[in-house]
Amino acid sequence: MDFPSTTEYAVQMSCNSCVNAVKKTLEGVDGISSFDVNLEEQRVVVKSVLLSSQIKELLEKSGRKVALQGYGTEFTGKNLGAAVAAIDMGKSMVQGVIRLVQASPKTCVIEGTIDGLKPGVHRLNIHEYGDISNGCNSCGDIYGLKQKFDKDASGNLDVIKAGETGRSDFRMVKDNLSISDIIGRSMVIHEGKDISFTDNLSDRVGCGVIARSAGLFQNVKKICACDGVNIWNEKVQPGNTAENELPNAKI
Question: HMA domain: which residues (predicted)?
């Protein structure tokens, strides 16, 4: 069963023509079940099974500036939790962002875009620790691993595939996984792994700490408190390390 995600974007709109242009980019798109465009709040909310990066690209085709503000699902009207991991440790060229949202009390939706991988299959796992003091080697074992070939371990996720450019766009659903249990742990990418559930330090090519992130309607930022830059220009500021601005990664 696939769980639609609801994604909230700040979209720079100033008139009804802007609204119509945004609506035109979303109408009739396969995978989008509904959307709402709010001119007064300059906000667009999309319910779909598409990657958040794909929706952002669609919105940008309207000619407007777009920033992702919230990611989640609504289960009985409540946000059950969301998290994000910036993959910025490991091999220097492997970078990206992975997002997680609690779709139901026992099910997570996981999506991401990773660049710099070797073409082919790799495996994405959650590991015990968020310790990256020694790069990916200090992240511990696969989370929940009880024996060497434990395919049912909570941290065993799924295969991701990188194309010829080294990019992997993926979306997966994982049962029996709670975001509250994995905050502070790590996401690790294992190079060249398909059906293997073992873990070798030499296979770890990318990793990042899992941190809590804004759910739906929880991020009201318009101006950055640290430097006074608005959300539309934040990404072009020198030295910005916000998740939206990871080199080569589409958020």
Answer: 4-67
The H or E element spanning position 66 is strand 66-72
Cβ-contact 12, 232 below 8 angstroms: yes
Tens digit of pLDDT per residue, the chain (251 long)?
A: 567 888 888 899 999 999 999 999 999 999 999 999 999 989 999 998 898 889 999 999 999 999 888 777 655 456 678 899 999 998 778 999 999 988 888 888 899 999 999 999 999 999 999 999 999 999 998 898 775 556 678 888 889 999 999 999 999 988 889 999 999 999 999 988 665 555 566 688 999 999 988 665 555 554 444 444 444 454 433 333 334 433 333 33
| Helices 16-26 and 52-60, axial angle in degrees (round to 10) | 130
Q: Are 7 and 66 in contact (CB under 8 A)?
A: no
SS3 category, 26:
helix
- Residue length, the chain? 251
Residues 206 and 125 in one domain: yes
> Tokens 């080569």 sit at which residue?
248
Provide the residue range defining the domain that includes 105.
Answer: 82-212
Q: How many structural domains are present in the chain?
A: 2
Are the beta carbons of 73 and 6 closer than 8 angstroms? yes
Tokens coding 98: 């992975």
Please indicate, yes or no, if residue 66 is contained in any of the structural domains: yes
